[in-house]
Amino acid sequence: MSIPPLTTTTADRGRTNGAPPSARLRRRLVGPAWGLVPFLAYLLLFLVVPAISVFVDALRTEDGVSLSAMGEAASGQNRAALLFSVTFSAGAALVGVVVGALLAYAAASLERPRWLRTAVTSFSGVAANMGGLPLAFAFLTLLGRQGILTKILSTMGWDLYAGDFELGSVPGLITVYSYFNIPLMVLVTLPAIDGLRPAWREACSSLGGTGFTYWRRIGLPVLTPSLLGGFMLLFANSFSAYATAAVLTDNSKIIARRIGFFLGGDVSIGEDAVGFALASWMIIITATAMAIYWIARRRSERWTA
Amino acid sequence: MIHRLSSVVAKSVPRLVVLVCSLFFAAPLLALARYSFQNVPTILLGWSTLFDKWSVTGVTAVFREEAFWSSLRLSLTLAAGTVVLTIGLLVPTALWVHLRLPRARALLEFITVLPYMVPAIAMVAGIMIIKPHARWFLNSDLALVPFYVVLALPFTYRSLDTGLRAVDLRTLVDAGRSLGAGWPRTMVRVVLPQLRVAIISAVFLTVAVVLGEYTLANTLLIQSLPPYQELFVGREPQAGYALNLLALASTTVLFAVLALVTRPRRRQSSLVRAIVSSPAHSSENPS
Amino acid sequence: MSILHLRDLRKSFGSSVALEECSLETREGELVTLLGPSGCGKTTALRIVAGFETPDAGSVELGGKDITRVPAHRRSMGMVFQGYSLFPNLSVADNVDFGLRTRGDAAPDRRRRVGEMLELIDLVDHAAKFPHQLSGGQQQRVALARALAVEPRVLLLDEPLSALDAKVRSSLRDEIRRIQREVGITTLFVTHDQDEALAISDRVCVMSQGRVEQLGTPMEVYRAPATPFVARFVGTMNELPGIVSGRETVSLAGIEIHAPRCSGESAGTAGRLLVRPEDLSIGESGLRGTVVSLAFHGATSAISVDVQRLGRYLTVVAPSSTVDDLRTGAETTVAVDASRAIWEAT
Description:
Oligomer: heterotrimer
Order of helices and strands of chain B: HHHHHHHHHHHHHH
Order of helices and strands of chain C: EEEHEEEHHHEHEHEEHHEEEEEEEEE
Number of helices of chain C: 8
Structural class of chain C: alpha+beta
Number of strands of chain C: 19
Largest sheet of chain C: 6 strands, mixed
Distance between the termini of chain C: 41 Å
Radius of gyration of chain B: 23 Å
Distance between the termini of chain B: 53 Å
Radius of gyration of chain C: 24 Å
Shape of chain B: globular
Helix content of chain B: over 70%
Number of strands of chain B: 0
Strand content of chain C: 35-45%
Strand content of chain B: under 5%
């Protein structure tokens, strides 16, 4: 008595012979593909539908479908807000990328103490997941007007709030965002740095290259897709951040905040459609960034696998 | 000579980076702790008052609030619901993909990035659009659950996927079946125990995400824990901050327990592996 | 003329000693293999020569000059690693070109040289490919070309074949030897595979636990092992327990065997005689035993004989024609030719 195969094996390929190759392929894929339907349906319902609704309402006017709201959402004050948010998120991402990559490199290369690397990865895992809300409050107690560090600095003669520094200003927000951006970068970059084989460094050396040569011609080029991907990830992360911004600032130039106001009934954004158009632009920007992240990630895996 | 100098520099710069970063990461937590435990306003804080008025009353004050308990209950209920729905949806899917549709693995990895393409605030905008059309469902607080499943998807699917990759699933299933066990039995007695660690990771991650999720809850005016955390700060500053400290500490403890439970078998623990291979990890993003 | 001279190298990592009194001299153009089990120090020695490790004591001389303190990138050494050492972001041609470009050679010269090297390894058509598009064997050939492009004075190979499958391994091994001969470069080759070592080397340096056990031609190392370790590590050995009974005689199970290499031992010492299977034969006189198994290997056969009085099985390798009529279970005699056997006291 033979037990039917439970999982497709290469032996199965013989069973469908007689049919043309494309049909064979289809037959092999379509059957089992049904198993994904519940999952895909779920995603459709609870992810795709809300996202599409935003676009639908953005394109809806009294006389039917129109791109006017999208246009309005990209002009005037809204445009200024979009530009501001993109620049701001890019700045936050840049800080996160540089410091995060350095920290990841430090954790990967320092042999002693032995527990350092595990400590860094574990902490990064926790910190990257730390809620934006408690974090914002924590920074308020540190660097807010009544913050303890503010106090310490003022006793040393440096009044942090003499100028127009605010935790909710750009430098302030970037500082707070770095708290979860840096660990996120560490988590994403460590595997890539691990992928840099010592043999490459040594081969470069035996061919006459110095450390500088190595980084310039091998190390950084190999890491570049990973760094780019990391940048995109941090960008999307900063761009989408809501809770932290909500606590620290009222600045409606931050798109996430702006949309929050709009949803709360603030009509200064524009009419309904414009508000949703703004949200649509937000999705487009974030999705583009994540798409680049995805592509960069695949590329970096190819080289360091 | 230069060679030796450059190696000294190469050694000390990384250490410096780690030191500076450690200070940066510890400072806000310490500041929050000080504020929560010491009832001295910063203005009055000086060397003489450094050790005054330390107590836990700031932290325990929140326990007297009924609103705290009800919001905590709600968040825990939401977490429980999200966990159940996530496991029920993802475990069969992950198993199916690994056993029957290995080509779809890449596709599924991409799908786990998908939630990050739609920022939480945009998603909630979409939910508000749909709301009038689905009032019967979306009016309930628990309506958040399905969306939380989506928000937690990247972590949870990653966790399960990593766990499944670590076992030779096909061989196990074939072995179980060839020994006479039917499909259900094979799943329960052979496969699921292998996934125990991955499932526990997924559960913990889900709970962490749900307990920290602010954006959806706040915009939809649902009084789960995070909106309450913000509200309470407005009403009673010290107690409110202390509550946030508690929230932070709880998440950290959660992760610490998880790291212990899923002890490292290889170089990295499965938790760290799951998080590491997840595309984006901050609950800032989904929230 | 000695080109590479390792003098009394000593190296420890923490509390474990990797190398102790390791000395070696190579001649111009010869291929010396460092052979030994893992942990014997061969890779450490190679890395010290390359400049990736500094010895605790001892020195490395190249052409008479002490290079022990010279940094790795200034030694003129070409190195081939165990695997995956090609730069993944550069094409095959750019990989081979790397050392030339670092050196600052002019573009036309580099192009010409890269072309020469690619022809040498027969991968001209693959010049534009990237490492991940090549097989393991092809990658190692490119690694070899890359190392040789800058015309180093010494070529170092760190187990270059270990990561490859068996078929590729033997053909690549011969390739490497061919190229090495053609270019005429002094080479140090590290491996744990004694077949490899015997097949391609001019001389073999057998190492164990940080020390050099024997340095000699493959023939010497095989036929005249200096120590029991070498005897066992290279090829197979039969171990015959016995007692020294005279100046050059050993008593095995009551039979006197002439063993010229045991001359230094005093009578009465107990120990083991290590004899190669091909130095045993099925004959008229010798040790009595029962045939346990016969393995036919074409020209030769391996016969396993249970010699009760010695309390062990002996493996005899003999031309198949001479043992044609032997059957399992048959009683037979094993003659011992101990002229090359070495003695190990217990």
